[in-house]
């Protein structure tokens, strides 16, 4: 069998380079998935939404990373060995992924209102599952984490806690005085909210001003739904850019795979 030449050879080496990037992307997703899996607070934040599809999303990320890793390996092998069979298989897999991405994007746009309603309902329902700051209950850990990380309180504001099943059940000692909390102390502003990643709840900046005076300088008054929405909007531009970049990347990979296949056929005819 002859070796590919000209444009096909160029496409071959570009395909190898692109699939090395695929390797790195797959490895990155695997690393992120494992990090989330091994950091219980990340999973417990998702558990606040109380949905098996969402809470097991981390396993999907790990599986996707492994899948991309394998696809990258397949593309590299196909290009290096100039195997038409492997390249056709690679093309089909990338095409399926490409079409799936378009379908997912269309579904997100089409069901945006349903997703908003779902999140609203789940936040309202799981707030009644909250027990206390020290509780290891999944919903308690999740609510504490989400309020610290997103700097929010309750669904729409700290007033939501007054109508929850938790209301009046937890006390906190402030300046030697035992006070019945109207909202969890994780609603209070802290110096470093991400300290929770290490398994520690950071102390409020001023628990007296937060709990007793409800001072907005020390109390996160905004609701978690709004904070979550703002966070998603802030990150949307990055997610969109990555999505567009990945789509263009996949298109080039398919084109290069077809070019190499054509080059292989021509080389075989010459021989």
Structure summary:
By secondary structure, the chain is mainly α. Helices cover 65% and strands 3% of the residues.
Question: What can you see in these coordinates?
Answer:
There is one protein chain. The radius of gyration is 25 Å and the shape is elongated. Helices cover 65% and strands 3% of the residues. A two-stranded antiparallel ribbon has the order 1-2. It contains 9 helices and 2 strands, in the order H-H-H-H-H-H-H-E-E-H-H. By secondary structure, the chain is an all-alpha fold.
Task: Outline the fold blueprint.
Blueprint: H1 7-38, H2 40-47, H3 52-55, H4 57-81, H5 84-110, H6 112-126, H7 138-149, E1 171-174, E2 177-180, H8 207-212, H9 224-270
Antiparallel strand pairs: 1-2
Helix pairs in contact: 1-4, 1-9, 2-7, 4-5, 5-9
Question: What key phrases describe this protein's structure?
Answer:
single chain; 271 residues; mainly alpha; two-stranded antiparallel ribbon; 65% helix; elongated
- Order the strands across the largest sheet as they lie in space: 1-2
How far is the first residue's CA from the last residue's CA?
Answer: 7 Å
Low-confidence stretches: none
Number of helices: 9
What value does the average pLDDT take?
A: 81
Describe the largest sheet.
2 strands, antiparallel
Instruction: Output the helix-strand order.
Output: HHHHHHHEEHH
Q: Provide the β-strand percentage band.
A: under 5%
Helix/strand-derived category reads: mainly alpha
Q: Residue share in helices?
A: 55-70%
β-strand number: 2
């Amino acid at each position: 069998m002859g070796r590919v030449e000209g444009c096909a050879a160029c496409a071959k080496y570009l395909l190898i380079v692109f699939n090395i990037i695929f390797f790195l992307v797959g490895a990155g997703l695997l690393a992120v998935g494992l990090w989330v899996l091994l950091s219980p607070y990340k999973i417990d934040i998702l558990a606040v939404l109380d949905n098996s599809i969402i809470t097991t999303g981390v396993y999907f990320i790990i599986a996707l990373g492994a899948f991309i890793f394998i696809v990258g390996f397949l593309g590299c092998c196909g290009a290096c060995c100039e195997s038409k069979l492997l390249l056709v298989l690679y093309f089909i897999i990338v095409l399926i992924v490409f079409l799936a991405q378009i379908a997912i994007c269309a579904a997100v746009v089409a069901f945006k209102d349903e997703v908003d309603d779902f999140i609203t309902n789940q936040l309202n329902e799981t707030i009644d599952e909250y027990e206390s700051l020290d509780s290891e209950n999944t919903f308690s850990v999740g609510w504490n984490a989400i309020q610290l990380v997103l700097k929010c309180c309750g669904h729409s504001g700290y007033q939501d806690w007054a109508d929850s099943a938790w209301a009046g059940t937890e006390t906190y000692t402030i300046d030697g005085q035992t006070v019945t909390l109207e909202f969890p102390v994780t609603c209070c502003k802290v110096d470093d909210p991400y300290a929770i990643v290490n398994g520690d709840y950071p102390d409020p900046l001023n628990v007296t001003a937060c709990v007793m005076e409800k001072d907005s300088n020390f109390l996160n008054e905004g609701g978690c739904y709004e904070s979550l929405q703002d966070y998603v909007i802030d990150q949307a531009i990055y997610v969109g850019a990555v999505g567009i970049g990945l789509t263009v990347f996949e298109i080039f990979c398919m084109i290069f795979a077809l070019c190499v296949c054509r080059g292989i056929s021509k080389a075989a005819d010459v021989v």
